[in-house]
Amino acid sequence: MWSDNETDRDFLNFGFVADIAAEMIVQAQGHPLSVGLSGSWGVGKSSMMKLLAKSLRARTDEQFLFVEFNAWLYQGYDDTRAALMEVIARAILARAEAESGVADDLLEKAKGLVKRVNWFRLASVSASTVAALAVGLPPVGLIGEGFSVVKNLTDGKVTQSDLEGAGKAIGSVKDAGLLKGGKSDAPETPPKEIQEFRDELKETLEKLDLRLVVLIDDLDRCLPPTTISTLEAMRLFLFMERTAFIIAADDEMIRRAVKTHFGTADLTDDLVTNYFDKLIQVPIRVPPLGTQDVRAYLMLLFIENSTLPQEAREKLRGQICQRLGETWSGKRLDREFVVSLIDDCPLELGLELDLADRIAPILTRATKIAGNPRLIKRFLNTLSLRKAIAKVQKVGLDDTALTKMLLFERCGSDKAYAELITAINESDDGKAIFLKPLEEAAAKDAASLKLEGEWNSDFVREWLTLDPPLSDVDLRGIVYVSRERLPVVSAADRLSSEGAALLEALVKLTTSSPALGEKLKALPTHELSLITERILARARNVEQWGTPPILNAMILLAGVSGQHVGAIQRFASAIPPSKLTAAIVPLLTDKLWGEDVLRTWASASETPEPVKRAITSASKKKGAA
Fold it and tell me: Among residues 278, 235, 226, which one has the least CA distance to residue 253?
């Protein structure tokens, strides 16, 4: 399995883009800079950000303070603007405390930054508190705590906990730096506080000789209010000396958030773009993956999970990325090239590299994957999971056939996939025979192959040409391990009208019915088995086994010979002894299949004594007779 976490190890040859962005920050020489890494969901923006940070650390002796901020984590739990300010302030304080020889006044200044954040947090709460009080709702935050304390102290029932609460609330406000003495000259308006915060931040960075690099990620996962709050918070720091902001987001999602934020305002696309452009000085779009990129990515993922030593895997990663950077000149990156780099390539890895070689084009062009790294990982993880299920369940199947079926499931039409599964389920040997003429025609000239309905797509034409041909393969095992998408519903699963009527009658049965038993004998074997499965499914919900109504249906079914009788016997033998009562014993005594069930219950140490005595008594009576 492959993790979906971002990494600073380059699997996509994005290192050169990260190096360019890092060089821009270095050459800015402390001047403010904002870089936007844009691209759709799952293309590798977060990994690109980590590669950029890694490149920065390696390129200069200048001290960088890297601060990572994920707005999505704070959504719904904190004011996003205050959260961003606090993360930055606490990172600076931690660096100041960690460095030796830092003057006390500088350390206090760093602590002051954290205290000022609390002022902003209170200022943000104030407006919502007034609104809450206006409609009779309880206020929130520090003001809310104070409000609750005052209410408790004035309700005529002052308790020790009320006094402790008052002390706690006052302490919280003091700790936040919100209670000011009469001689305090601390600014009290947002514009003054903002300017003071900026001035102190700039001075602290200068004295610590630091350049602040803020990495903002997952902005496109946030709801519009959180997205806009984060962008607005950035304005406090943008264009400040010694700062650089790296923002990773899907620019299309940001544009939607801006439009949502301004509501009914008549915003043109140009105005929305201008809003974003004022925050981002250097836009960098993560490049989409082509066939060679996808092939390299697949091979690197397989190599990463192989038995090769870590040193060898890392060397291969560098060699493959280097080769990928040369493919523009016509050099190919394929299985032959990669295998030539590996001494004694393991057999399993060789097969996986061959698979990567064959499926890379279709993973690149299929619109439902389109070379997206995250979707490619999910595809491979699903493939690995199904292989594991097959191994545990001892289902024999061909890995390449499994991969081809998964490709159709993920990239083809849902309706066409359902038709394919139906054909497999209805076939006696699990083969999709209708594919045979299509595969033969595609092998000759896929481009001119005429298809109809949901099957008429370039993806299907290319899929039909992939090895192995599936028309002569028993695909029932593959359908079985893939059943989380569609259930396994074979032809035998469908009851005739007579069978459906008998099942309904059995479910409603409260006493024995010989007439119903005679009708059951006329049903084919597969219908008896299906009815038995459904009756046992209901029986699993019985909590006490004395004479439950469903037992009548089980006894009646067991009176008709067939393989289903064994299923009823195994089910009855496996009933937890704690659920048994003595009343069930007489109902099974005269049944041939019931003798083995009673012996199993009698030998179980957990079986209640009344049940054991009933079994012993019934056995003696039967022997005497």
Answer: 226
